[in-house]
Structure formats: structure tokens, C-alpha cells
Amino acid sequence: MKIKACSRxxxxxLTLMEMERESYPHSELMNNIVAVKYLCGDxxxxxxxxxxxxxxxxRRFLETRNQSRI
Length: 70
Ligand SMILES: [Zn+2]
Fold this sequence. Notes:
Elements: E1 3-5, E2 14-16, E3 38-40, E4 46-47, E5 50-52, H1 55-69
């Protein structure tokens, strides 16, 4: 099970935002490249989500975040 989390606070309360496709309206090359962004329900950051392969990986990410804040 893949887990998507906020890159800033690690929250999993993410809401899918609109694709940024309209940023490149005149480029056919960019048509297939879509940046998917999420709104974080905890810190309101809008960014690409960090994807983890397991809950354990996600927990490790949270731990390293907490340590680097000290
Ligand atoms: Zn967040």
C-alpha cells in the first residue's frame, strides 16, 4: 500500500488539487506531463506529495523530521 504524505509536516490528510496542465496551453510536448499537487489538511501547504511504499517508511520519515527540528 502506497502512502502519500505532505512534504513539510508529513500529514496524510491530503486533498487532490487540480492538475497544472493549463500552465502549458500551447505546448504539445507538455501535454502528457502533469504535475499533481495536493493540499495538506494540517499545514495548508500545496505541493507534490511524498510517496512512501509502506507505513513503516512513512513513520521513519516522520522520525527524521522530528529529529532535524531540534
Ligand atoms: Zn502539511
